[in-house]
Amino acid sequence: MSIVILGIESSCDDTSAAVVVDGLLRSNVIASQKVHEEFGGVVPELASRAHQQNIVPVVATAISRAGIDKHDLSAIAFTRGPGLLGSLLVGTSFAKGLSLGLRCPIIDVNHLHGHVLAHFLRKEETDRVPEFPFICLLISGGNSQIVLVKDWGNMTILGRTIDDAAGEAFDKCAKVMGLPYPGGPHIDRLASEGNPNRFHFAKPHIPGLDYSFSGLKTSFLYTLRDAVAQDPDFIAKNQADLAASLQHTIIEILMDKLRRAVEQTGVRTIAIGGGVSANSGVREAVASYCERYGLEAFIPERAFTTDNAAMVAMAGYFKYLAKDFCQYDSTPYARVTI
Ligand code: KG4
Predict the structure, then answer these.
(1) Which residues line ligand 1 (CB under 6 A)?
(2) Strands lying side by side in the sheet with 269-273
(3) How far is residue 43's CA from residue 37's CA, in Å, rounded to a whole number?
(4) What is the pLDDT of residue 317?
(5) Could you report the per-residue pLDDT of 122-180, keeping only the tens digit for each?
(6) Atom of ligand 1 at shortest distance to CA of 11?
(7) Residue 57's Cα: distance from chain center in Å?
């Protein structure tokens, strides 16, 4: 009999549901919330309400697109954390209710594990997946971590940010430039037309494999403040060069520690994940580094870089095989590491 897993993701501002059958992805539906745009960031209460509106149609669509019936489900996997508590509560409660109605087990998934395990999502049996161990550079709006993945359930953080995440650096600097939220994709687009060596921003000197991005943010802010004092149109005139130089610095910071992690561990397979792994420059930097040193690179499809339920269903599939279910008294958590 097939193993059919429904995944539900509601940790931030995307309501998503996906179905994985015997380890192969059958559907992945995402409803993104536009309601936050005018506020320049995610408003938690609005996010929870939008999840409530979206979750029934999103789950129903994922099930019908997968060509299955809800009674075929072997288990329901849901993101338990980290994320916004109100948002997580919607997915968690929905998963519990549906599982009680269908009499199938529930599986709690750590959202960060999901990002790592997204690399095992396959549409065909022949699709390439990483072999253990591999290193995953997990870079999103809330996290920047170098993870040593020894097995699907055995992950060690080799380095993490001590302050801002890489995505925050993109978003906060973009905000200073007057770009809409989230700024990362806008910087990416502008950077393709700019000179990455025009401006130089501060880079951190943090020991070990940890990251820091708050100094870069301050340095970016001061550069702009001084320049705008001389010429009020400075940002508008130099948008592309500012974006390209900022992106270049963020990539250098990320790559420096990633290279050290590879040297220290001797691991030959590198994966990237999380929202910032959608960035063209980051993807190119990782791909060319791996090519140069004969390492195997796993760069996810852009659809699987940001929050999605496909990765939750995949993580749920692994846990299902290990009979690792959770109880109905399990509650969401806002913060957790790998
Ligand atoms: O993993 P994710 O969807 O969720 C959170 O951690 O909340 O990551 C969102 C982050 C945001 O900071 C966004 O600006 C960034 O990913 N991001 C990008 C790009 N696409 C999304 N950053 C740089 N370039 C991109 N193309």
Answers:
(1) 12, 140-142, 167, 170-171, 182-185, 188, 274-276, 278-279, 306-307
(2) 154-160, 144-151, 134-139, 269-273, 296-298
(3) 10
(4) 98
(5) 999 999 999 999 999 999 988 899 999 999 999 999 999 999 999 999 999 999 999 99
(6) 7
(7) 24
pLDDT digits (tens, 9 = 90+) for 174-230: 999 999 989 999 999 999 999 999 999 999 999 999 999 999 999 999 999 999 999
Residue 188 CA to residue 35 CA, distance in Å, equals 23
Q: Mutate which of 306, 307, 311 to test ligand 1's pocket (most atoms within 8 Å of Cβ)? A: 306
Strand pairing class (154-160; 4-9): unpaired
d(CA 145, CA 298): 16
Residue 323 has pLDDT above 90, yes or no: yes
Q: Indicate the top mutation candidate among 170, 179, 246 to test ligand 1's pocket, ranked by most ligand atoms within 8 A of CB.
A: 170
Query: Taking the C-alpha atoms of 206, 274, 12 and 245 in order, what is their torsion angle to the nearest 10 degrees?
Result: 60
Instruction: Please compute Rg for the chain using Cα positions.
Output: 20
Distance CA 284, CA 312 (A): 26
Q: Distance between CA 335 and CA 338 in Å, rounded?
A: 10
